[in-house]
Structures are given as structure tokens and as C-alpha cells.
């Protein structure tokens, strides 16, 4: 079997070598001038060659994998024979070098033995130096097999559409128009025609206002914009693609079930469900980074595939979380998946062209969370990362993070004995004498500002009957985040905000229009049942006091009072924006036509 597999491997390598030579000739033809470059860039033959080359490379990986499995089995057989011939009482050393590409049953234990910290890169490639990567989870091969069948159907459909393609016109941001072919021309090809530098630095494109994969053929005449990393939308795409790279590494390392992996304001994260008490440790980051680097080095293309909901339920039957998303979130008959290497993930996209676009990646934090933030659901492991198209940008980010750590209020508060937190009252700050002095100084400053502007300070209860929260709407939408408890035949709760209490103060007796505007200020203690994993120093707590104030006024007084409030806010340095009450709130929605 091994000899047969080796012969197939040799034939496959010859095919790839021939395709590589032909591709080099076509690439050299691009030096023939703009006309030749344009023809070759948009040539269906070239696109077909590129696609076939990628498929052959992937088939080559599988052939090598099969050959390694055969050799491993033969080696095990020989070792078993030799062991039987040895004397009893002698123990053979265990073989710790496993192939990191074998497919096997679903593993839920950590799949890297971390006996020694050196040779991390080698650990990413296979068992080296006392560490080993266990086989791929069994669902990988089944998922890939189904994907390949669907991809063939999709490629055949695209080929038929390309054969009947019509000329299209693409409008660029500067007003210029270029010609193309529907279902053939891609944004990347057009970017190459404009500037090779633009094409090399492109992250994603925007077609008719929607983000679009660079290698996805255009379907009709449209407007086109090529986005680089300095664009906010491009950064989100870049970090989303980086999350998929991390997801591939996590599947390889842990063998669990991936959940959500979105971009965030600064970077990305991926959630994974692991069976049993298994968790994630920061000591494993270097192994994950090594796996991510190997994925980047392979330049795995991101492939988009539109699939029916029923088929996707079959594809992700091993992952109950993906099935929940399909059943609860997907309302259309079809949706999309994206593939890079062995990872196939439920995703709307779009993504960068290939994993090689991610030049610098770092994993820097992990935490535990709940499925969709619900404490009654499964606990997930979350890993955070950041990536950039330049290693210098990553170093600058690391320098900034180091400065932020040195200025962290939690670090300063402990060093200067201002405050501390304790496990016996999580999320509730203990202000020490120095911290209490600063706290009271800030309170006095706010109290003086309130007095200058006609606010009257009040004190309201901490505990209310749940009927009040039902009236305000908090109980229907926020009860899980409130501390509640039974009292006789009713349910009471600690107040998470002062608004309903101030409304009771306003309505406890008839009011005259002469009393308006009525300004109430409160420094009452508030409690919110934040999840333990979200508590972060003084920025996310369960017990706090809020400089809370409300103005009760007529419609004619809204503009003037808003100006007074904004003037007060501008004395402090922070970002500000105006919001309005949501529908079904205690107060009616107010429309403000102008503030100034």
C-alpha cells in the first residue's frame, strides 16, 4: 500500500511541477505590456489554472498524509514483532512522535504535551522534543469530504455562468470606468490593472457599498473601491480572517467545538467549548502562535461557498453550537461558509485573499465566558488575539500595551493603597483612607457643580418591589442582571439605577407647571449582577455610586436644559453622544429637532 501511495505521490508532484512551469510562463507574459497583462489577468484559463493548482496542492497534502499513515502502521507492526522477541521484564520506550495531520476520533483533552518550552516551531509541525500533537478530530475529514462535493458543484455552476458572461462596466472612486466580464472579472484583477502596489496592499473591496471578497467574481456592473488596512471596515475584515486562523489552530490544538469568532474593536477572539474540566492556560499561547504561523506560511486561500441550511446542519452535526446558530439565527434558505485549509466555518464573510496576508499575529489573553452571555448555558473558553500587516505595527501595539499596563488603575490603586477587591465580595470596591479621600473630593466637586446649576440633592431607597421594575421595563429585559430576593409574598430587587425612584419622587403628589424644571440629583448606591468574568477593576463592578441626575421639564424647556447639561459635560474630557429612550420605556420618546 505504501509503494502504491508513493507512486501516486510522485505522479502528483510531476503534475504540480508542470502546472508551475506553465504558470511561470503565463506570469512572464505579464511583462508584455498593459494589453497582455489585462488579457492574462482576466483570462478564464488563468483562473482555471490557479484553481486547479490549489486543488492539486491540497490533494498532495492528503496523499502525503496517507503515505505517512501507512509508514507509521508498518513501523508499529515491526516494533510489535521486535517486542515479542525480546525478553520479558524489559520495557520499550514509547514513541512520542505522532503525525500531526492524521485524522482520528474527536479529542477533548489538551493535545500538546508541554514538558519542555523549546522548539515551539517544531512542535507545530509534529511531535518533537517530548511534546506531541495528537491526531486531528474525526469530524475534520467528514466535514472536508462534504465540502469538496459541494465545491465541485459550485465550481461547475460558476463555469457555466462564466461561459455565458456579459460585458460589465465598473466605476472606480475617481470616476474612471473599466470594462470587465460578469462572473469572470474579480476586484483583485482590476486592482492589478490599476497598480500592483494597490493589489498587494488590498485587504478587501467594496462593491456597490457592500464588502466583497477580492477573488469573488463580479456579477454585474457596479462601483468598486479597494480598501487597505487603514480603513476601519478593512481592519474588521483583517481581524475576522485572523480569527479563522486562530480557530484552525484551536481545532488542531484542543479538538473542541468552535463557537463564535468575531472581530472586535482592537483585534479578535474565538470561543471554543471543551468537554469536562479542561480549560485554556496562558502557557499554551506560544504553541497556538506557532500553529498560527504555520497556517500563515501555507497561504491557505479563503474560499466562499453558499450552501443550503439543511446541508449545513449535516456538515456541522458534530457541533451543537453551530446547529443552534443555524436553527435560531439563520432565517434564509441558504447561507455561507468559508474555508481556509482544513477549517470550514459558518461565516458571512468576507475575508482576505489568503492566510499569508496576516503578517504579524499575537495571542495575548484568555478568559471563560458563557454561551451568548447566559449564565445558565455552557461555559466556553475564549482566546483573544491581535494581528497586523506589518511586524512594526505589532511592536508598536505591544509598546502601547506595556504603557497601559504601567498606568493600569488597578496596579496604581494597589501600589498607592487607594482601594482593593476581595473574593468574599466580588465586584465591590474597598476604598482605603487615601482612596476614600479622593472619592469624597470628587463627590464634593460634582455636588458644587450641581448646586450652581439648580439641582437639588435627594436620597432614594436601595430596594424596590419588582412591580416598579415591571412598570419601567427593567424586569422584562434586565432581571437577570439584578439582585432579587423574596420578601413575604413579593419579590424585591436592589436598584441598578435611580431613574424609576426619581419618577416616584416626581409623581408622589400633583405638580404645578411653576415647579418645572425640577432638577433632582442622587449619589445613591447601585447594584448590578454583572457576570464574574466581566468584572474589571473599577470599570466593571457590581456595587457603585453614580452621579445621577434627572430634569423634569416641559417640551418647551428641553432645548435650554439640554444646553445646560452639555455645558456641564464639556468641563470634563471625554467623548459624548446623545441617545433617546427606547420604545416601551417608562417615559415617552422625545423628539428634539435642534439643540443649539
Automatic annotation (TrEMBL):
One of its GO terms (cellular component) is mitochondrion. One of its GO terms (molecular function) is ATP binding. Residues 96-116 have a biased composition (Basic and acidic residues). Signal peptide: none annotated. Keywords: Aminoacyl-tRNA synthetase, ATP-binding, Ligase, Metal-binding, Nucleotide-binding, Protein biosynthesis, Zinc. One of its GO terms (biological process) is threonyl-tRNA aminoacylation. Its EC number is 6.1.1.3. The keyword Acyltransferase does not apply. InterPro entries: aa-tRNA-synt_IIb (IPR002314), aa-tRNA-synth_II (IPR006195), aa-tRNA-synth_II/BPL/LPL (IPR045864), Beta-grasp_dom_sf (IPR012675), TGS (IPR004095), TGS-like (IPR012676), Thr-tRNA-ligase_IIa (IPR002320), Thr/Ala-tRNA-synth_IIc_edit (IPR018163). SUPFAM superfamilies: Class II aaRS and biotin synthetases, TGS-like, ThrRS/AlaRS common domain. This is threonine--tRNA ligase. It catalyses: tRNA(Thr) + L-threonine + ATP = L-threonyl-tRNA(Thr) + AMP + diphosphate + H(+). Belongs to the class-II aminoacyl-tRNA synthetase family. Pfam families: TGS, tRNA-synt_2b, tRNA_SAD. Residues 164-228 form the TGS domain. It comes from Oncorhynchus mykiss. It comes from the Eukaryota.
Amino acid at each position: 500500500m505504501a509503494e502504491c501511495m508513493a507512486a501516486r505521490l510522485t505522479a502528483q508532484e510531476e503534475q504540480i511541477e508542470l502546472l508551475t512551469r506553465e504558470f511561470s510562463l503565463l506570469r512572464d507574459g505579464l511583462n508584455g505590456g498593459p494589453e497582455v497583462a489585462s488579457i492574462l489577468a482576466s483570462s478564464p484559463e488563468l483562473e482555471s489554472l490557479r484553481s486547479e493548482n490549489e486543488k492539486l496542492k491540497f490533494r498532495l497534502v492528503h496523499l502525503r498524509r496517507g503515505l505517512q499513515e501507512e509508514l507509521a502502521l508498518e513501523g508499529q507492526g515491526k516494533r510489535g514483532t521486535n517486542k515479542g522477541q525480546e525478553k520479558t521484564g524489559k520495557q520499550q520506550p514509547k514513541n512520542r512522535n505522532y503525525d500531526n495531520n492524521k485524522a482520528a476520533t474527536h479529542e477533548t483533552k489538551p493535545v500538546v504535551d508541554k514538558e519542555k518550552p523549546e522548539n515551539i516551531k517544531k512542535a507545530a509541525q509534529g511531535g518533537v522534543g517530548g511534546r506531541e500533537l495528537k491526531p486531528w478530530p474525526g469530524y475534520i475529514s467528514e466535514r472536508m469530504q462534504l465540502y469538496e462535493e459541494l465545491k465541485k458543484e459550485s465550481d461547475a455552476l460558476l463555469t457555466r455562468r462564466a461561459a455565458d458572461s456579459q460585458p460589465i462596466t465598473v466605476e472606480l472612486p475617481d470616476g474612471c470606468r473599466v470594462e470587465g466580464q460578469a462572473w469572470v472579472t474579480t476586484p483583485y484583477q482590476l486592482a492589478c490593472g490599476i497598480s500592483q502596489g494597490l493589489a498587494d496592499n488590498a485587504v478587501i473591496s467594496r462593491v456597490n457599498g457592500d464588502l466583497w471578497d477580492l477573488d469573488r467574481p463580479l456579477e454585474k456592473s457596479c462601483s468598486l473601491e479597494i480598501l487597505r488596512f487603514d480603513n476601519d471596515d478593512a481592519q474588521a475584515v483583517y481581524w475576522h480572517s485572523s480569527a479563522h486562523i486562530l480557530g484552525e489552530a484551536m481545532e488542531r490544538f484542543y479538538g473542541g467545538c468552535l463557537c463564535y469568532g468575531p472581530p472586535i474593536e482592537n483585534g479578535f477572539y474565538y470561543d471554543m467549548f471543551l468537554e469536562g474540566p479542561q480549560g485554556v492556560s496562558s502557557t499554551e499561547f506560544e504553541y497556538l502562535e506557532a500553529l498560527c504561523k504555520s497556517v500563515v506560511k501555507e497561504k491557505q486561500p479563503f474560499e466562499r461557498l453558499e450552501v443550503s441550511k439543511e446541508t449545513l446542519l449535516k456538515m456541522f452535526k458534530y457541533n451543537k453550537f453551530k446547529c443552534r446558530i443555524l436553527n435560531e439565527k439563520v432565517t434564509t434558505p441558504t447561507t455561507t461558509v468559508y474555508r481556509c485549509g482544513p477549517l470550514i466555518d459558518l461565516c458571512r464573510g468576507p475575508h482576505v485573499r489568503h492566510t499569508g496576508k496576516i503578517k504579524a499575529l499575537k495571542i495575548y489573553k484568555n478568559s471563560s465566558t458563557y454561551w451568548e452571555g447566559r449564565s445558565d448555558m455552557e461555559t466556553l473558553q475564549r482566546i483573544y488575539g491581535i494581528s497586523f500587516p506589518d511586524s512594526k505595527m505589532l511592536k508598536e501595539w505591544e509598546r502601547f500595551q506595556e504603557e497601559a499596563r504601567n498606568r493600569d488603575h488597578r496596579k496604581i490603586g494597589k501600589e498607592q493603597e487607594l482601594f482593593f477587591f476581595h473574593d468574599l465580595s466580588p465586584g465591590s470596591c474597598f476604598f482605603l483612607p487615601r482612596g476614600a479621600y479622593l472619592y469624597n473630593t470628587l463627590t464634593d466637586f460634582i455636588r458644587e457643580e450641581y448646586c450652581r446649576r439648580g439641582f437639588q440633592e435627594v436620597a432614594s431607597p436601595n430596594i424596590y418591589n419588582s412591580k416598579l421594575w415591571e412598570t419601567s421595563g427593567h424586569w422584562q429585559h434586565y432581571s437577570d442582571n439584578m439582585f432579587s430576593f423574596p420578601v413575604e409574598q413579593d419579590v424585591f430587587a436592589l436598584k441598578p439605577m435611580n431613574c424609576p425612584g426619581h419618577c416616584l419622587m416626581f409623581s408622589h403628589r400633583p405638580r404645578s407647571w411653576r415647579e418645572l424644571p425640577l432638577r433632582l440629583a442622587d449619589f445613591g448606591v447601585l447594584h448590578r449582577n454583572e457576570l464574574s468574568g466581566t468584572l474589571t477593576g473599577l470599570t466593571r463592578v457590581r456595587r457603585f455610586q453614580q452621579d445621577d441626575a434627572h430634569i423634569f421639564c416641559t417640551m418647551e424647556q428641553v432645548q435650554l436644559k439640554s444646553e445646560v447639561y452639555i455645558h456641564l459635560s464639556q468641563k470634563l474630557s471625554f467623548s459624548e453622544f446623545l441617545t433617546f429612550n427606547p420604545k416601551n420605556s417608562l417615559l415617552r420618546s422625545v423628539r428634539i429637532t435642534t439643540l443649539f
